[in-house]
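Module 6 notes. Inverse folding takes a fixed backbone as the condition and produces residue identities as the prediction. Think of it as a translation problem where the source language is geometry and the target language is the twenty amino acids. Below is one complete input and output pair. Work through it position by position during the lab.
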């Protein structure tokens, strides 16, 4: 055998030389993201997002939504991200509307990264959570002061190639200017002891206060208080002492209402409100819009919550007394009313129910689901899955948004996957997550317990039971009517379009079914529907929705004045403010 060894060695050598080198594995498209020392010299926690847009109409961060025109977003959680440290976003990052970078169509894109920065909160419950604090913008990640981002740049992407694209966040969203007081609109901000104790750091409540005409000239007058609930207002909305510029551009187009010049129309309505406000026979009320943005959303839903804290009590017993003291409110339940639409509609009904002696009437327009058997299109008590209708062989997605003709723009799964890109643990700052944050018990990790799995849609029955007992408004009314009914008779007014974009009318039907059966006492209120009316319809049967949605502060006042005349207790001050 020895005589063959040289030949074997030679063959082995030749084979080795002829073998091609192993090909480098294609790891696919990825992005390397960092932030500069100028942004901060501190490590950052937060939600790091990669945003891609196939157009430059505006920055990618302003083109991310759950609708048909959304661009692409991918997100990951980061903890302790240091200046200059490169964080990789690759095919494993969860995305919307495509779930992975490997599925991005080849082409030219504008690239932007943004980190929604978190702070650490040591809660009263003993739990520690990391959340994005509101910075005066109303809990919107794309415009939150202090968030880092980069100016968009254009790249050509081919997901089949293993390229790495560097993105450096070297821009910071600037602070927001505080609104200034005027003759009619004042601004108030207080630290809430209740909320500060819950969150483990100073927490504030704010209010924009619209004062009645003649407030300074009638120092002995005291006024009824109107709480106008809605999403986070940067200032008192829909009120202007100046008419719009007659030469104002009217080429802007509202897709929602299919009309041109809507910006000028809104300003004209704001000026018309002012003219009514100062007119001789207009009721002299105080109207308040509350600022109660929190680490989960632009609004607290004005109730006490295991995850958000005692916002209901803080507003009722800390903020409102301060407003009434400073601006001469009457300060009694018969002289307080509440109204609003959408989130504000749910709040108006909820606070009237949870504080029945503190308000004399609510006007709830297009309210968020007030019966969880119709949590939009989900019955959280009977359905097993929030994303899909039950079927033996067919898979049919539940819609989440439609237009007045019933045409579908998005599904439940899409809405929730969109939110999941923006934040885990209910931290997206969006609609389905805030319902969860308000209504759910606090989990062992300190974050809200999921009502359903955010990826698959499977419903947690134990969480649904908690929702039912604490926040299902129809169920609570029916359960407690014996004690609540005598305090609420004549106070409940609910309005909704029968083609509400979010199917909110379905829950209103169920609420109405119960209210019509009430006895000892009968509810003595009103439930109304708008034919083919979309979201924000508020009871106006004459004007189109794009007009009536701008008139919340005037359309309910005649009903409120009538209610005061009928229900004010003997000896009540119904005169000092009637000048």
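Target side of the pair, the amino acids:
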């Amino acid at each position: 055998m020895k005589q063959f060894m040289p030949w074997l060695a030679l063959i082995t050598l030749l084979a080795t030389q002829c073998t091609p080198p192993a090909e480098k594995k294609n790891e696919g498209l990825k992005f390397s993201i960092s932030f500069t020392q100028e942004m901060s010299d501190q490590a950052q926690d937060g939600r790091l997002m990669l945003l891609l847009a196939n157009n430059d109409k505006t920055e990618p961060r302003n083109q991310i939504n759950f609708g048909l025109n959304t661009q692409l977003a991918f997100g990951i959680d980061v903890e302790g991200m240091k200046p200059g440290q490169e964080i990789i976003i690759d095919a494993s990052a969860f995305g919307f509307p495509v779930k992975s970078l490997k599925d991005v169509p080849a082409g030219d894109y504008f690239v932007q990264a943004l980190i929604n920065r978190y702070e650490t909160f040591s809660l009263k419950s003993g739990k520690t959570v990391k959340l994005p604090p509101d910075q005066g913008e109303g809990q919107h990640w794309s415009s939150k002061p202090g968030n880092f981002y980069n100016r968009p740049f254009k790249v050509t992407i081919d997901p089949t190639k293993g390229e790495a694209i560097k993105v450096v966040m070297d821009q910071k969203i600037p602070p927001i200017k505080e609104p200034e007081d005027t003759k009619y609109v004042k601004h108030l901000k207080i630290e809430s002891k209740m909320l500060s104790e819950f969150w483990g750091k100073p927490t504030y409540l704010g209010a924009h206060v619209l004062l009645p005409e003649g407030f300074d000239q009638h120092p002995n007058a005291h006024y009824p208080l109107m709480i106008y609930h809605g999403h986070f207002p940067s200032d008192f909305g829909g009120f202007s002492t100046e008419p719009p510029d007659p030469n104002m551009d009217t080429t802007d187009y509202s897709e929602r209402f299919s009309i041109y010049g809507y910006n000028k129309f809104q300003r004209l309505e704001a000026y018309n409100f002012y003219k009514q406000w100062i007119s001789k026979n207009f009721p002299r009320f105080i109207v308040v819009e509350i600022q109660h943005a929190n680490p989960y959303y632009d609004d607290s839903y004005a109730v006490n919550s295991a995850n958000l804290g005692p916002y209901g009590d803080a507003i009722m017993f800390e903020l409102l007394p301060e407003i009434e003291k400073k601006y001469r409110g009457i300060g009694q339940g018969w002289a307080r009313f509440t109204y609003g639409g959408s989130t504000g509609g749910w709040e108006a009904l909820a606070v009237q129910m949870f504080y029945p002696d503190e308000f004399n009437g609510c006007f709830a327009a297009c309210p968020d689901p007030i019966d969880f058997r119709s949590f939009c299109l989900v019955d959280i008590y009977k359905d097993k899955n929030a994303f899909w209708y039950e079927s033996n062989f067919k898979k049919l997605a539940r819609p989440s948004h439609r237009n007045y003709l019933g045409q579908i723009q998005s599904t439940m799964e899409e809405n929730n996957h969109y939110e999941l890109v923006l934040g885990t643990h209910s931290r997206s700052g969006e609609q389905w997550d805030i319902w969860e944050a308000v209504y759910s018990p606090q989990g062992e990790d300190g974050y809200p317990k999921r009502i359903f799995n955010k990826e698959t849609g499977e419903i947690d029955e134990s969480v649904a039971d908690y929702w039912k007992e604490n926040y299902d408004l129809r169920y609570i009314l029916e359960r407690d009517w014996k004690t609540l009914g005598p305090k609420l008779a004549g106070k409940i007014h609910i309005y909704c379009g029968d083609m509400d974009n979010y199917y909110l009318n379905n829950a209103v039907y169920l609420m109405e079914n119960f209210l019509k059966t009430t006895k000892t006492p009968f509810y003595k209120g009103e439930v109304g529907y708008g034919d083919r009316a979309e979201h924000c319809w508020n009871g106006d049967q004459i004007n189109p929705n794009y007009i009536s949605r701008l008139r919340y502060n005037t359309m309910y006042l005649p009903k409120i004045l009538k209610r005061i005349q009928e229900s004010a207790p003997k000896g009540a001050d119904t005169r000092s403010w009637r000048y």
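Reference fact for the lab report: Residues 276 and 282 are 7 Å apart (CA to CA).
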